[in-house]
Design brief:
There is one protein chain. The protein is an alpha/beta fold. The protein contains nine helices and five strands. α1 crosses α9 and α3 crosses α4. The N and C termini lie close together (11 Å).
């Protein structure tokens, strides 16, 4: 079995994924971490030096590599569904879980790490930028996921409990 966590930046995919993998005794894969490891650069550096399209190509190669594995929990980057290739891969997978958070929840989670979030870094109005990106991505998250878990007001253990109920 493999579990793939998708959703906007700051909804807790990595935090939930690590603990869920530990609970299931699965390997944990974080696509953003793997991109940084592969390129030997941070994500902000990749965006700055090569741009978003280059980053998305790296993201696709990481997704293609690890999606073949079993007994994994994979946390993906928030924009992974923005390319047709990644969208199609995720659409054909089972147990793709959309962690859904409100704009307010996302702001609370990302406001202190904006410099690590290239798409939010230059934004003067954080709320407006998040709403804009969410409006582009939300339907895609819905379309490729098998279940939506509302993370608002929940701690990591509560989110994991809901995932465990879903995967049975």
């Amino acid at each position: 079995m493999k579990i793939i966590l998708i959703g906007f930046m700051g909804v807790g995919k990595t935090s939930v994924g690590k603990q869920l993998a530990r609970k299931l005794d699965f390997n944990f894969i974080d696509t953003d971490y793997e991109i940084e490891r592969l390129s030997n650069k941070s994500i902000p550096e990749i965006f700055e030096q090569y741009g978003e399209n280059y980053f998305r190509k790296l993201e696709n190669s990481i997704l293609e590599k690890f999606v073949k594995n079993e007994d994994i929990v994979m946390a993906t980057g928030g924009g992974i569904i923005t390319t047709k290739e990644n969208y199609n891969i995720l659409k054909n997978e089972e147990k793709v879980i959309f962690l859904d958070g409100s704009v307010e929840t996302i702001i609370n989670h990302v406001q202190n790490e904006r410099n690590q979030r290239p798409l939010l870094k230059e934004s003067e109005n954080l709320s407006k930028k998040i709403e804009e990106l969410l409006s582009i991505r939300y339907e895609k998250y819905i379309e490729v996921s098998d279940i939506l878990i509302d993370i608002n007001g929940k701690n990591i253990d509560e989110v994991i409990s809901q995932i465990l109920v879903y995967i049975g």
